[in-house]
Design a protein that fits this description.
The complex is a heterodimer.
Chain A: H1 13-44, H2 67-75, H3 79-110, H4 116-128, H5 131-145, H6 152-156, H7 163-174, H8 178-186, H9 191-202, H10 204-220, H11 223-228, H12 237-247, H13 252-272, H14 274-282
Helix pairs in contact in A: 1-13, 2-13, 3-7, 3-10, 3-12, 4-7, 7-10, 8-9, 10-14, 12-13
Chain B: H1 2-15, H2 19-49, E1 52-53, E2 60-61, H3 65-72, H4 74-105, H5 110-121, H6 128-138, H7 146-153, H8 168-179, H9 182-193, H10 197-205, H11 210-238, H12 242-248, H13 259-269, H14 273-298
Antiparallel strand pairs in B: 1-2
Helix pairs in contact in B: 3-14, 4-8, 4-9, 4-11, 5-9, 6-12, 9-11, 11-14, 13-14
The chains are: A mainly alpha, B mainly alpha.
């Protein structure tokens, strides 16, 4: 704890009280400013589904209706399917990463097999490469060579075991005492059993963090789904929202409704699993 | 004696493929298959494509022509300039902002700290598309746009935020500053909590003021964190794509075309795959150099 940074003013509670109140005021003002766009989005998503230019719009709508949600959902016969697609893609990506990345991470951390150093080095290098490098060949590969446009395969497969997650899992598993795994081996556990019965149960937190980050990343991903989908039926919600925006640039409330539909599920997830979200930020960043 | 037996064991290990090898390969098989097909192959292919004129049936080799073309295009340099302007404005300022917020959150109890962390983190959860859609309206050019209403309070007339060449970049910078400092705040908080209280106690005994404590204890102790955030921030900022794509389309007059958008346009609007790959590889080299620099400067200070 670094609370020693502030003088405690032990003999003068009044000063401490005033200082803390001043800090709270500044912090709340900052928070309000950065939360304003979200409040604006939520409020105006309930506004009327008419051209914004025809009304002089205030900070918050005067009439509150659900019309704009209807307008957004009626824009395409597939708009609910977009949510479903996003969900399918995110869930599969998460499951794949939890299983494959953690298995690979375990092997890199605790199994001495040939080639582990070289392969892990390649994975590390890959983390540095910006996505702009791989986007064109990946696009050519998936769209031209595999002919997988508009399929769940193309949406899910490239992200099913990311280098970052392999790295994260490896880092965490390296911290598990080898003696523990060795004793499991003496008791007669094979590698698979050790991984399944000892390592995974010890790693629930890191796996939860990984799951949440991956889920969020997949749900919010726009670029790749945009490249590999051309049929409305296969859009994810982000791609759908972008198409809606380009088609209906003048409809304020329906656009906000669309933005809400894309963002609110993640807000709910955030409030439900806050601890893991916040933990996830510092994982892999800095040693405290 | 021990050394020799070690060496013998090593030699033995080298020759024989043992049980460990098999289980290791089994464990990494799925992840490595995905890695080889969807990461390693594309990287190699990008390098090759950058020396080619891509055609669906048989690309032709053009040597370094794509690189020459890229370097000769004024737009390439303009996009680099834009990217740099954006980065220089956004990254340091957002660090200062995050650092100040983290310092201000510090004196409070655990509960209140979590509340503030959550509040600051929340805007970063919305997708880039959703954020852009909302900010597009905040920057609405009519007098009833939120930012114009705000200017109106101060008696300044309305501004064409996103479509005037004077303010378009400023708008994107402002948006970045206000919508994504949550994770930086949290990382700084973790770093601040890692500073041992004895430092402050010693400083207190020496009669150090608050600012002196910040300057002589907090700054040096947070240096690895700052460097980490600086480099990751710069790397992220070099790859920025969403905001320009969604908000301005790179305009007006390519004043907000950044390198990420330029590469995207070359590849997927004009179909110049070779050129796009060449530009992407130059970007990757710059980013790799930055990362190396980070490792070098920080040395053992930071553990990944």
């Amino acid at each position: 704890m670094a609370s020693g940074l502030y003088s405690q003013h032990l003999n003068n509670k009044k000063i401490r009280y005033m200082r803390n109140s001043a800090l709270v005021v500044v912090l709340v003002i900052f928070a309000l400013v950065s939360l304003f766009p979200i409040a604006y989005m939520l409020a105006w998503s309930f506004g009327p589904a008419i051209e914004a230019a025809s009304t002089s719009y205030s900070i918050f709508p005067q009439v509150w209706t659900l019309d704009s949600y209807k307008k957004f959902l009626n824009y395409s016969p597939y708009s609910l399917r977009w949510l479903f697609n996003s969900l399918v893609v995110a869930v599969c990506t998460v499951l794949g990463n939890i299983l494959f990345a953690s298995m690979a991470g375990y092997a890199f951390a605790k199994i001495r097999f040939k080639g582990r150093k070289t392969l892990f080095f390649l994975v590390l290098m890959a983390m540095m490469i910006p996505y702009q490098v791989t986007q064109v060949p990946l696009y050519i590969l998936v769209v031209r060579q595999f002919q997988l446009t508009n399929s769940y395969f193309s949406l899910i497969l490239p992200g099913i075991a990311t280098s970052y997650n392999i790295f994260l899992a490896k880092q965490f598993f390296s911290g598990i005492p080898t003696a523990l795994l060795e004793s499991a081996k003496i008791e007669g556990c094979g590698q698979l059993k050790t991984y399944w019965l000892i390592v995974l149960p010890l790693s629930k937190t890191i796996l939860a963090v990984m799951a949440i980050n991956t889920f969020l990343g997949s749900w919010n991903n726009f670029f790749w789904p945009f490249l590999v989908t051309s049929k409305e039926a296969m859009y994810t919600i982000q791609v759908g929202l972008k198409q809606f925006k380009f088609a209906n640039g003048t409809l304020l409330s329906p656009m906000m409704a669309g933005a809400c539909i894309s963002a609110v599920p993640m807000f709910i997830l955030f409030f439900a699993l806050q601890k893991y979200f916040l933990e996830g930020v510092t994982v892999g960043a800095v040693k405290g | 004696m021990k050394k020799r037996s070690d060496r013998a064991a090593k030699a033995y290990k080298k020759k024989r493929i043992n049980h460990e090898d098999f289980s290791g390969w089994g464990f990494i098989f799925a992840a490595m298959a995905v890695f080889l097909i969807f990461t390693l192959y594309p990287v190699i292919s990008a390098v090759i494509t950058s020396f080619q004129n891509y055609k669906p049936f048989g690309s032709e080799w053009v040597g370094a022509q794509n690189y020459v073309d890229a370097l000769n295009a004024p737009l390439f340099w303009k996009s680099i300039k834009n990217t740099l302007v954006y980065t220089v404005a956004v990254v340091p300022l957002s660090l200062v902002l995050a650092f100040s917020i983290a310092i201000m959150i510090l004196p409070f109890g655990k509960k209140l700290q979590s509340v503030f962390k959550a509040l600051y983190y929340l805007p970063g959860i919305a997708s880039g598309v959703a954020t852009a859609v909302v900010w597009l309206w905040l920057y609405n050019s009519s007098p009833s746009g939120i930012f114009n209403q705000l200017l109106g309070v101060f008696g300044i007339s309305s501004v064409n935020w996103l479509s005037s060449s004077k303010t378009a970049m400023l708008s994107l910078i402002l948006m970045a500053l206000l919508s994504s400092h949550g994770s930086n705040v949290i990382i700084y908080m973790a770093a601040l909590h890692g500073i041992d209280n004895t430092y402050f106690e010693a400083a207190e005994i020496d009669g150090a003021s608050f600012m002196q404590k910040i300057r002589y204890i907090v700054f040096p102790m947070c240096k690895p964190t700052t460097l980490f955030l600086l480099v990751t921030g710069v790397i992220g900022s070099f790859q920025v794509f969403m905001n320009a794509y969604m908000m301005t389309g790179g305009g007006p007059d390519n004043n907000t075309t950044m390198i990420g958008l330029l590469i995207f346009n070359n590849a997927f609007t004009y179909g110049k795959y070779g050129l796009a790959c060449a530009q992407a590889i130059m970007l990757a080299i710059v980013i790799a150099a930055l990362t190396m620099l980070q490792f070098k400067v920080m040395g053992d200070d930071v553990e990944y």
